[in-house]
Structure formats: C-alpha cells, structure tokens
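hey can u check if this looks right to u? its 414 residues, i copy pasted from the old doc so theres a chance i mangled smth
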Amino acid sequence: MEMEAYQGYQYVDGGVCASSGFVAGGLNCGLNPDKNKNDLCLVYSETSCDTAAVYTTNKVKGAPILVTKENLKQSGGKAKAIVANSKNANTCNANGMEIARSTCDIVAKELGIESSEVIVASTGVIGQPMTIEPFLEGIPRLAGRLTVDGHADAANAIMTTDTVPKEVAVAFTLDGKPCHLGGMAKGSGMIHPNMATTLNFITSDVAISSEMIQEALADIVKLTYNCLTIDGDTSTNDMVSVMANGLSGNTKITAKDADYEVFKQALYIVMLNMTRMLAKDGEGASKLLECIVSGAPDLDTAIAVAKSVAGSTLFKCALFGEDANCGRIMCAIGYADGDFAIDEVSVILSSLNGSIVVCEQGNGVNFSEEKAADILSQDEITVLIDLHQGEAEAKAWGCDMTYDYVKINGDYRS
C-alpha cells in the first residue's frame, strides 16, 4: 500500500523504535499454543515519557484499560513502558484487574521502574480464563532482550487475526533538531471505533507535555481511527497511547504554537497510514475502501456520511461482488446523521482503473456496467461523494465483506 508524501516529513523504518531512546521486543510466553507466534511484547524508554491515551467507549472495558487509566492518573501522565499480550483479552475475567496490576508489577521489577509507569494492554478472546503464570515466565525473559531492532517482534506479538504487521514512522525537524514519531497497530476485526480502535502504540522523541499530546491525539483520532469501520463492532479493549521522551532536544512544546502543529501533523501522518493499514487488513477483506465526502455543511456531517457508506454491510457486500450498486450507497448516505438535502448529491467510483459517475443530483445515472466492474476489480477503491452543500470534507475507511469474514469469526475462539 503506497503512502502519501508530505513535505517536511520522511517515512523511516523502525516503528515504535524509530524514535531515540526506545527499545522493544516480543516472544511467545505460552498464551498462544503456536510457539512460532509471539504473544507478549514490551516497549521501553529509560527516559520518562509524557504520555496520553484514549480508550474504548464500550461499557464493557478490559481490565488492562482500567489499570492503564489508574496508572496514568497516579503518575501524572508519565510512563516508561508498554506491556501487551495477544490471544487473551483479559476482559470479563473475575481476576482480570489482579492480573493486569500484577503484570505491571512484574514489568516494574524487571525494568527497575514504578508500576504506575507501565501501560498494560491485552487483545484476543473475551471471557477466557487467564492466569499470571505466562507473564511471570515471559516478562523476565523478554526484559533481557529489548533492542532497537525489536520493534518487528513487538508488532508481531500484538497480532491476532491480522495477516500482516502494521508499523509506520516519520522523521522531521523541530528547532533544527532531528525528531521522530512512529507506531505499531493491530486490528482486523471487531473494529468500529468510537474513540480509537484496536491496540495502537505510538512513540516519539519530541519534547512535548502530556496535555498537548492529549489535545493533538483527541483531534487526530476523530479524523483517523474514529473514521474506520470493519464490521460495526466496537471492541472492549481499544486503546491508543502516545509516549514522548523528549530526547530530540527541542524546546518543550507546552502550547498550541507552530511547533505543536508540526508535531500534530506527524501524529496525523502516522495515525492516518495505520488506519488505512487496518482497513486493508480487515478480516477476510480483499479490497480497501476509502470514502471521501466533500461539499458538506460541516465536518461532523461529512464524517457521518463517510462512515455511513464505509460501514454499510450491503455496500461492503456489493463491493466484494464488484457490483456498482449506487442504490446501496445512496441508502447509506440517506440514513447518516446530519441536516442536508439528498437531491444535490453526486457519487463517483474510482480506482487505478479509472473513475465513473454513478449518481448525480441524488439520482442514479446510466453508466457502463463493464467499465464499473473493471474499476471495482482493483484492491483499493475510492468512493467520492459530493453533497454540494458546503465546504467541509472528511474521509472514512473500510473494506469489503467476504465469505472469509464469516469463516474467521465462526470459529474465532479456536
């Protein structure tokens, strides 16, 4: 998947270890019976990081979410480490809080830090019994093998039904100082975020206060992760965290000035690309869907329309069948929240094979079904919707709905 270029920002390798001072690693601690699959990861910065996070709005929240909230409140928005596991979500477990807290204690002991400086996260099956033994055995082994090159092992460890790891990092300049921001994400199903989505960990060597990180994160998540939908299910364990250790040496960002905007743009680039990666790797997906809405009366309406179309099960099925059914698109536009008229709407389908108008002034138009099918045969499809009722624009991302989605989720616990 090609990533768009942005002036002043250069894509680099390294994921969560692209920023100075961060090391990581991953291994199999026994949660996953497949010994070739990592199921536990650690990310560590010896220098304390200003940290912010956003979490799922699902009323059912995994114990790690609650413990991470506790820790960041106790530490005053400071953290040094992330510990995350896959295979078991540690959600709806009677001993879940005890296990999450104990996991932080083990990490703290091995790294010589405070338990409140640990971000803890889990992903996998909900409601499965869990014990502390895998962490007691795995964390000491893992703590001794953290390296700058360990980002790939860490990214592998948080994967569940993902088919590929998801890492993005950029380099840029502040105060004449080289700076970096990078992250890793996991997610393939149970994705319909309402704050963030899945597990996403982002690190930076920029000097910036936790308050300013929180401000930037809240703004960017609305335009990226919150505009992603795979299947309409909001996970119980969704989390996005951002840690910044300040090792780049720039003047610390404590206000919404020009430097803040540079940092915010870097955060947007990384989160945008990870959002697209998550959409393209949707469970069973064969096509990435990007829905671009323009001409909306306001941003919230643009977002609502884009998400409505990207999340329409009927349109996702039509996309899989390479059927240019504009009625399903118009239907999804029509039930989106917002005050707008439908009789001005136009719709264009586009891909590397060209583009075709399928709707004008709220009505379907004659078009070549053969050309439309050729456009939809590509693995990245764009739906361009113009409401012709304002200046606001927004994007949303999703994927097609295939037979494999049902197969994967029919036996997910196995």
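The longest strand covers residues 40-55.
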